[in-house]
Design goal:
By secondary structure, the protein is an alpha+beta fold. It folds into 2 domains: 54 residues, no CATH class; 146 residues, no CATH class. The chain is built from 7 helices and 7 strands; from the N terminus they run βααβββββααααβα. A 4-stranded antiparallel sheet has the order 1-2-3-4, covered by helices on one side. Strand 2 and strand 3 form a beta hairpin. Keywords: Membrane, Transmembrane, Transmembrane helix. Pfam families: DUF2982.
Length: 210
């Protein structure tokens, strides 16, 4: 089977934004002696475009690799890998009350998964912060539950960031049904199409491994 590389949508147009920002900045400098007021506005706009383009360029060129061995997720703070056999279910997560699909690919892992043993604290902290909006969808903010617990009853040996990450994983599993989430911004197609692609690839990979 050939490896499939997924390039993130968030990286698109980064060069265009930086080129436009550079041109506007040059124009602002040229106009400043003659029209200082408008040139300031152009300068601010150009810096905003340059900054946005720079931020987009920080994302990985490839965010997801589908290989015969499993799924590789490449994040700017690190990466994780899941063998196909450790994925119990994958689909779009849905809101608990309305069942409206969320723009994510959800991955539910088998109970014996080893994901927490291989992820780095730096990446765990980044995912902990990025997935806070998902956690808030299933938590009661009035009861002060919008922040994940700093300890995990299922993983008492973990401490600090890793304990908080494990606790949030458990809470998201209970609330939305999945352990890991790929946001639409790291994909090159809709979440629904990505789910279909991964399912098909996984089935072929497992079939070849038999």
């Amino acid at each position: 089977m050939d490896t499939i590389a997924i390039a993130p949508m968030s990286r698109r147009n980064s060069i265009t934004l930086m080129c436009c920002g550079g041109l506007l900045l040059a124009l602002a400098i040229l106009l400043n002696p003659f029209w200082p007021g408008p040139s300031v506005g152009l300068g601010v706009t150009s810096l905003a475009l340059l900054f946005l383009g720079f931020i987009k360029r920080q994302d990985k060129v490839v965010s997801v690799h589908l290989t015969p061995e499993g799924l590789h997720y490449h994040h700017r703070k690190g990466e994780w890998f899941l063998p196909w056999g450790e994925i119990q279910r994958l689909d779009q997560p849905r809101l608990p009350d309305t069942h409206e699909p969320l723009d994510f690919v959800g991955l539910r892992l088998i109970p014996e998964h080893t994901h927490l043993e291989h992820i780095r604290p730096r990446l765990a902290l980044a995912l902990l912060m990025e997935q806070r909006p998902l956690h808030q969808l299933t938590a009661s903010c009035d009861e002060g539950a919008c922040m994940p617990s700093l300890s995990s009853k299922k993983h008492p040996h973990l401490t600090g960031v890793m304990a908080a990450y494990a606790a949030q994983m458990n809470q998201l599993r209970d609330g939305l049904g999945f352990d890991l989430y790929l946001p639409h911004s790291v994909l090159d197609r809709s979440s629904e199409q990505m789910v279909s692609l991964i399912k098909q690839y996984r089935q072929q990979a497992l079939h070849q491994g038999d």
